[in-house]
């Protein structure tokens, strides 16, 4: 069995204190996210240049948009994989793993990768209100179209 290198005894308390603190997790998460964002953005441009002929013909503005979409896709995959891991593989959400309520449970992965400290307590209520608000916004946005549709339907009914 290979021994893993360890920190010198003088640094061990500092490393343990830093690694367990939420400030260090936040700093590590932000630093890693910035570096990963830049790397994935550059890698998307590099791969696209060789894999897609149309990429070379795009203007710089369109290339920036394309690379942003590449990073957005990468971010969605990482967030989905982390969520699936927390939900199905880890014991964070098992009933017997903790006496805490499920909405109050956190882990280093949920704090670092997903940035979730606690589940939003009004999440259920937002599921009820957001669709209704979106429906009202759509009615306001498409009011002229709806008005024309009502007028057309009423004319069609009266002409019969």
UniProtKB/TrEMBL annotation:
TM stretches of this protein: 26-52, 73-93, 122-143
Keywords: Membrane, Transmembrane, Transmembrane helix
Superkingdom in the source lineage: Eukaryota
First and last residue of the signal peptide: none
Keyword Manganese on entry: no
InterPro entries hit by this protein: TLCD
PANTHER family xref list: CT120 PROTEIN, TOPOISOMERASE I DAMAGE AFFECTED PROTEIN 4
Name of the featured protein: TRAM, LAG1 and CLN8 (TLC) lipid-sensing domain containing protein, putative isoform 4
Provenance organism: Theobroma cacao (Cacao)
Source lineage: Eukaryota, Viridiplantae, Streptophyta, Embryophyta, Tracheophyta
């Amino acid at each position: 069995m290979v021994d893993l290198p360890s920190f010198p005894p003088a640094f061990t308390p500092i490393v343990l204190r830093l690694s367990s603190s939420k400030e260090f997790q936040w700093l590590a998460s932000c630093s890693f996210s910035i570096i990963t964002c830049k790397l994935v953005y550059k890698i998307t441009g590099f791969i696209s240049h060789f894999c897609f002929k149309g990429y070379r013909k795009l203007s710089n503005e369109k290339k920036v948009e394309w690379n942003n979409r590449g990073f957005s896709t990468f971010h969605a995959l990482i967030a989905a994989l982390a969520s699936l891991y927390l939900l199905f593989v880890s014991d964070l959400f098992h009933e017997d793993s903790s006496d805490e309520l499920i909405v109050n449970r956190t882990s280093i992965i949920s704090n670092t990768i997903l940035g979730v400290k606690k589940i939003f307590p009004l999440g259920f209520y937002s599921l009820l209100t957001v669709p209704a608000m979106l429906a009202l916004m759509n009615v306001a946005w498409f009011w002229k179209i709806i008005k024309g549709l009502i007028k057309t339907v009423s004319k069609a009914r009266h002409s019969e």
